[in-house]
Amino acid sequence: MTDFRDSTDDRADAVMPRRTAARTAKLASLPLGMAGRAVGGWGRRLTGHSAEEVNAALSAKAAEQLFEVLGTLKGGAMKFGQALSVFEAAVPDELAAPYREALTKLQAAAPPMATRQTHRVLAEQLGKTWHRRFAEFDDTPAASASIGQVHRAVWHDGREVAVKVQYPGADEALRSDLRQLQRFSRLFQALAPGAEVKPLLAELATRMDEELDYRTEANNQRAFVKAFDGDDDVLIPKVVASAPKVVVTEWVSGTPLSLIIADGTTEQRNEAGRLLAEFHYSSPTRAHLLHADPHPGNFMILDDGRICVIDFGATAHLPDGAPPTLGVIMRLALEGRSTELLDVLRTEGFVRPGTEIDAEDVYAYLLPLVSPLTEERFHFTRRWAQKQALRMGDIRGQDFRTGRSLNLPPHWLQIHRVTAGAIGILCQLDAELALRSIVAHWQPGFAP
């Protein structure tokens, strides 16, 4: 990453352009440049046309433009790109390569802010003598996030720490981006057929204020630290200090999940998948929280075999744990009890009042989604994810019509989205694991 410590450009706009018109113009360039490529390419493929009809060169150009716009704008644009990245496993292989590379870059890359600008934020948040809190502070960012960047440092007591500093203007940029991206939700749906883009953007907008206040993130992280303290499989870095726009946590080194996805052995992939699934399904019971930002950039595997989880800005609060109804729905689908399944879905609000829908159609729609629970060990693959995306996205099929008749209640949105994201990562990992035993242990309502 470029070192800006000698830069003389000290304007906030140099990091995150805050003028709505400028950001809107950049985001507007996406549909103009990608409409013919993404919709005309992936869209034709998803509706049954042959792969030969898709121009790979145009797909590569669209991917390049996607990264250029979403990555350099940071804010809501980059956050949206990161959220999309976990669903690339559902894209047909012959089309996915350029998008996979571009979206994966969004998990960890963005241009840094100037050094003097970083120091100004630290002074505003930690006090004018902020440097006395550190024995060492590296001005070159070690990593980037959607609304901030991370520096490596040494705390005054000798502990290695990670210092996340929020970009000036992040609040205005985030709000502007999400408003603009919501306008193009139908177009972006073509980029990630396994994702539900419109509700994803709505959720990002709803939780925006929480993510902008790093004190909320720090409190979430402290709760996870307490819940997983001493765990043999999971490490959550401890919070050292926090302020509205700066959070300091213990530094942890490990192998990013993205590297295991790219080059890991079968054993590494399977174990990483197991650790991720255990963390995801156990968190509501153990912490009464759910880590709600599941992309590979937020996970790493340590030398001692544990999974390290970072970035708790997006966290779902589940004071009563995971809803038992979720386990009941899984079990009824597995047991083929279609009438009872439909009754539960109606009661929970998945079927709007007055909507006529066939119980067997609903059962047929949901059964493939719980197929990982039908076997002692299930192999999550890109091919399986692609098959589900094509099945639900084929406008000529019954599953598409059934899906359009179902409703996702607002209080289920985050759990659904996070679980889909976690499954997307398992497919990227190509992991084989005993998911059923994990769900049976942690998910209320699943056992009869």
From TrEMBL:
Family matches, as InterPro entries: ABC1_dom (IPR004147), ADCK3_dom (IPR034646), Atypical_kinase_ADCK (IPR051409), Kinase-like_dom_sf (IPR011009)
Organism superkingdom: Bacteria
Pfam families: ABC1
Keywords of this entry: ATP-binding, Kinase, Nucleotide-binding, Transferase, Ubiquinone
A GO term, aspect molecular function: ATP binding
Assigned protein family: Belongs to the protein kinase superfamily. ADCK protein kinase family.
Protein name in UniProt: Predicted unusual protein kinase regulating ubiquinone biosynthesis, AarF/ABC1/UbiB family
Species this protein is from: Prauserella marina
